[in-house]
Amino acid sequence: MSPESKKLFNVIILGISFMFLFTAFQTCGNIAQTVITNLNNTDFHGSGYTSMSIIYGVFSASNLVSPSVVAIAGPQLSMVLSGVFYSLYIAVFIQPATWAFYTASVFIGIAAAVLWTAQGNCLTVNSDENTIGRNSGVFWALLQSSLFFGNLYIYFAWQGKTHISESDRRTVFIALTVISLVGTVLFFLIRKQEDTKAPGEEDSASEILEDSSSAQSKMTRAVAAFKKSITLSFTKEMLLLSVTTAYTGLELTFFSGVYGTCIGAVNRFGSEEKSLIGLSGIFIGVGEILGGGIFGLLSKNSRFGRNPVVMLGIIVHFIAFYLIFFNMPNNAPIAPMEGTDDTAYMIPSKEVAIFCSFLLGLGDSCFNTQLLSILGFLYAEDSAPAFAIFKFVQSICAAVAYFYSNYFLLQWQLLIMVVVGFFGTVTFFTVEWEAAAALAARSSDYSSI
């Protein structure tokens, strides 16, 4: 197998592994609050929003040290161990206990930071300036296929149900736990890249993949990775991209947790309200897959850079927010177990609700594929610290969003995303223009988006 084929193989395996792992986790997140609402008349008194807030809060803090962990353990082992913790979190729902639920939330926050730092490193090491756009698109399309499979099962399994029984819950979460373990095992298929540096040449991305028998050497690399993370976080480009990243954290919270809860709370959807949560997740996944596939395949043919894709993303999201504002009751995110009989500015439409799910997924893919691409392009030699900072900002904003989702009406959640999304688009444009100018100055074709 040629080196290029080997790299593409690694990217595909990486994407498939994440597809299985997040088929379980994203489906779990999409239905968690609905399942928990049906549990809160028992001894269980947890909150799905609070759990996600804990996860992303710990996630954000853990990103400060995750490059050091990846430097010591290596990206492959880091992803395997992280996958085990994801499986344990999902397994908690088989027989829920409040203490176990929140404890698992802390551990998965740590695991998520390590997982995504290792993923960013693995993606960058297996890409170059000309393939980072394609590989980002391929990875994102495979990853977001996870939204399709799990939610398709939820749609059919929960068809016509207004209450989720203990048997329904256990069946779903046993299946999701097994699926997440399959994804974890697949990480072992990723092949290690050989070191191709000239003697004395430094490349932190390659260093992280080296096997070192010296504990002192590993500790030195860990400290260096931590220092590099701190240094990069205060650069102009990273500060500007942090605004864009903050927006992705807010809208991630909305489409992965809040919107499904809103749909499941609207009594006017009748007996289909619970199964519609699964259908919503499917169409979010369709949007994500379509966006990732198109922007990955077209990356080499674009002469306009990443900005048009990001512009498409914000326009699509603004249309979705407008339609959701008109279609969904204001109190839907915080409705009680009985749901809400309120209406917004129109009679709630299932078709509009599902169409908005598709738009949310498509817009999210626009932002995330381009952020992965520009980070891999700008920080090819410092991929682990750069992706750690990206996930730090994204996760802390997601944690804040999950926290206020317990209290804010729908209109205020939408307004926050509109404001942050606008400024995030502007700052991304600024960084992309500077990157294009730097690339032109090196007399290189600007071929990756």
TrEMBL record:
This is UNC93-like protein MFSD11. Coiled coil: none annotated. CDD domains: MFS_MFSD11 (cd17407). It comes from Zapornia atra (Henderson crake). It is found in: Membrane. Its main location: membrane. GO terms for cellular component: membrane. It is a multi-pass membrane protein. The chain crosses the membrane at residues 7-26, 46-65, 100-118, 138-158, 170-190, 238-256, 276-297, 309-328, 386-404, 410-431. Keywords: Glycoprotein, Membrane, Transmembrane, Transmembrane helix. The gene is Mfsd11. Belongs to the unc-93 family. Pfam families: UNC-93 (PF05978).
